[in-house]
Amino acid sequence: MTGHSHRRGLATPSRLKSHDQIAIAKQGGWAPHSKVLAGYLEVVDQGEDNALLGVL
Prior knowledge:
- This protein has one domain.
- The protein is 64% helix and 0% strand.
- It contains three helices and no strands.
- Helix 1 (3-16) runs parallel beside helix 3.
């Protein structure tokens, strides 16, 4: 386990609870519009923003 694991571990559940990317970035030490953080959040958002939700 590394410090990276804890940072990503902060981002994922925070996004699942609908926290804003800027707030997550500030708490986790990322730049406000970090591409790395955006990649972590994209994994979470795929399930929430799926265009097929409710269609199938």
